[in-house]
TrEMBL record:
GO terms for biological process: cell division; cell wall organization; peptidoglycan biosynthetic process; regulation of cell shape. InterPro entries: Mur-like_cat_sf (IPR036565), Mur_ligase_C (IPR004101), Mur_ligase_C_dom_sf (IPR036615), Mur_ligase_cen (IPR013221), MurCDEF_CellWall_CoF430Synth (IPR051046), MurE/MurF_N (IPR035911), UDP-N-AcMur_synth (IPR005863). Belongs to the MurCDEF family. MurF subfamily. Residues 96-275 form the Mur ligase central domain. Keywords: ATP-binding, Cell cycle, Cell division, Cell shape, Cell wall biogenesis/degradation, Cytoplasm, Ligase, Nucleotide-binding, Peptidoglycan synthesis. This is UDP-N-acetylmuramoyl-tripeptide--D-alanyl-D-alanine ligase. Pathway: Cell wall biogenesis; peptidoglycan biosynthesis. Its main location: cytoplasm. ATP binds at G97, S98, N99, G100, K101, T102, T103. The gene is murF. It is an enzyme of class 6 (ligase). It comes from Muriicola jejuensis.
Length: 424
C-alpha cells in the first residue's frame, strides 16, 4: 500500500498505536518488530480489542481486508508521520541535546500552550519510533508541535530531522552523554549538531543559547537565528537571579520563579521564555506557564519524606549532568547533606575515568553520607560507602536509615534509583 493510500485511511482513523496492550478504539495498529517480539503476531488481537486496521509486513498473518500489508511496518510508520507533517498546518519545533531535553520540552510546551493549541512529545518517546508517533498526534487544530529528539550515535539526529522537517530547532547543550556510541565528546558535538545542519540546509530558524561557546561557534554568520544571553550578547537578555534551591530569573523587569533546582536548569527555563517572546506570548503568560510547571518522572523533583528533603534526579545521568547536580546540591541550604549516586551508562572506555572524577567531586563536598551504587562506582577509590548492587544498598539503608537533612539521588535510568525512596 502506498503512503498516500495509508494516509487516507489514517485521516478517518487518526489514532495510532504500536502496543497491542493499549489499543485506541477505531485506530490503527502498527505491528512493529523487535529483537524479542514480532508485532505481526499481535495484529489480530489488536483488531479484536477495537482497532479498525492493523499494518503488518508478514503476509501469513493477513486474515481479511482489515490487515494492511506493507513492505516494512517501521518504514511505513515513519513515512506516514512525515507525510502527515507535510500536510498539517502545525509549526514544528524540534530540540535535542545531551542534558535537559525533556524538562526543556515540557517548559516550552507549558509556555506556548498559554496562547496556542500545542502538543509535545509524550514522556521520552524521542527516537525513530517516538518521533513519527508524535507527528501523527498532530490534529487539524494543532498550531505548534514540540518534538524532542534523542540519540546515542552519529546520523541519528540527521535521520530524525529528516522525518520531522522542523521549522525551528534548539540544542540544549553538548555534554558527556552516550560517549561510547558517539565516540567521545567531539562525536557528541558532531552528532547533536546534525539538527543545526538540517535547519541550515533549509534556511529554517534556530533558537540558541548565546552564552554557550560551542553554539556560538557553530552558528557564526547564520542569519536566521534568535538567541538569549545573561548579558547583552543576543537578541534577548534573560537574567539569572538565584537558585537557592529553585531557579529564579528575570526578563524585562518581570521575575519568574521556577520549580526547578540548580543553575543548570536556568537555560532550560530561559529558552522557554525566549520562544514565548518570539511567538508573541505575553510576559505575564510566560510567567504563568513556567511557574505552574512542576517537574515529575524522577527529573529535578524535590520531595519531603520522614524529615528528609529529597532532590530526586534519577531519570538519567552522565558525567556532565552528574557534576552539575552535585555542584547545585552543594549550594543548597542546610548543613546535613548526603548523596546516593548510581552508575552512569554508555561511557565506553571512559567509564572508569569518569566515575572516578565524580567520586572525587563528591569527596571534596561537605557531606554526611556518600553512597555509591553500581559496578563502575564499586571499582573507584572513594571516600564513602560502595555497593555493587541496589539490593546491597537497600539492605544497608534498612538497617541504617539516613539522618534528617537533605539527600541527592542521581543515576542512569538502568539503576532505577527512585527505588531508594522506599528505604528512606
Amino acid at each position: 500500500m502506498t503512503t498516500e493510500a495509508l494516509y487516507q485511511i489514517f485521516l478517518k482513523h487518526p489514532s495510532v498505536s504500536t502496543d497491542s496492550r493499549n489499543i485506541p478504539k477505531d485506530g490503527i495498529f502498527f505491528a512493529l518488530k523487535g529483537p524479542n517480539f514480532n508485532g505481526n503476531a499481535f495484529a489480530l488481537e489488536a483488531l479484536e480489542k477495537g482497532a479498525s486496521f492493523a499494518v503488518i509486513d508478514e503476509k501469513e498473518y493477513r486474515v481479511d481486508e482489515r490487515f494492511i500489508l506493507v513492505g516494512d511496518v517501521l518504514t511505513s510508520l515513519q513515512q506516514l508521520g512525515t507525510h502527515h507533517r507535510l500536510h498539517s498546518g502545525a509549526i514544528i519545533i524540534s530540540l535535542t541535546g545531551s542534558n535537559g531535553k525533556t524538562t526543556t520540552k515540557e517548559l516550552i510546551h507549558a509556555v506556548l500552550s498559554q496562547k496556542y493549541r500545542t502538543i509535545a512529545t509524550s514522556g521520552n518517546l524521542n527516537n525513530h519510533i517516538g518521533v513519527p508517533l508524535t507527528l501523527l498526534r498532530i490534529r487539524e487544530n494543532t498550531e505548534i508541535a514540540v518534538v524532542e529528539m534523542g540519540a546515542n550515535h552519529q546520523k541519528e539526529i540527521e535521520f530524525l530531522s529528516s522525518l520531522a522537517l522542523p521549522d525551528h530547532g534548539y540544542i540544549t547543550n553538548f555534554g558527556k552523554a552516550h560517549l561510547e556510541g558517539f565516540g567521545g565528546v567531539e562525536g557528541v558535538i558532531k552528532g547533536k549538531s546534525e539538527l543545526y545542519t538540517n535547519l541550515i540546509s533549509r534556511n529554517a530558524h534556530i533558537f540558541w543559547n548565546a552564552d554557550d561557546p560551542i553554539q556560538d561557534g557553530k552558528l557564526k554568520g547564520y542569519p536566521n537565528k534568535t538567541g538569549f544571553s545573561e548579558g547583552a550578547g543576543a537578541d534577548q537578555k534573560i537574567e539569572f537571579q538565584d537558585a537557592t534551591p529553585l531557579v529564579r530569573l528575570k526578563v524585562e523587569n518581570t521575575e519568574i520563579q521556577t520549580n526547578l533546582p540548580g543553575k543548570y536548569n536556568f537555560p532550560n527555563a530561559a529558552i522557554a521564555v525566549l520562544m514565548g517572546m518570539y511567538f508573541r506570548v505575553s510576559v505575564s503568560q510566560i510567567k504563568k506557564g513556567i511557574e505552574a510547571y512542576l517537574p515529575e518522572n524522577n527529573r529535578s523533583q524535590i520531595l519531603e519524606k520522614n524529615g528528609l528533603k529529597i532532590y530526586l534526579d534519577a531519570y538519567n545521568a552522565n558525567p556532565t549532568s552528574m557534576k552539575a547536580a552535585l555542584e547545585a546540591f552543594g549550594q543548597t541550604p542546610g548543613k546535613v547533606k548526603s548523596v546516593v549516586l548510581g552508575d552512569m551508562f554508555e561511557l565506553g572506555e571512559s567509564a572508569a575515568e569518569e566515575h572516578q572524577a565524580i567520586a572525587d567531586i563528591a569527596r571534596e563536598m561537605e557531606l554526611e553520607e556518600r553512597y555509591f551504587v553500581g559496578e563502575n562506582f564499586f571499582k573507584t577509590q572513594v571516600k564513602g560507602q560502595k555497593f555493587r548492587t541496589f539490593q546491597d544498598l537497600s539492605a544497608h539503608l534498612e538497617q541504617h536509615p539516613l539522618k534528617k537533612g537533605s539527600v541527592l539521588i542521581k543515576g542512569s535510568r538502568g539503576m532505577a534509583l527512585e527505588r531508594t525512596l522506599e528505604f528512606l
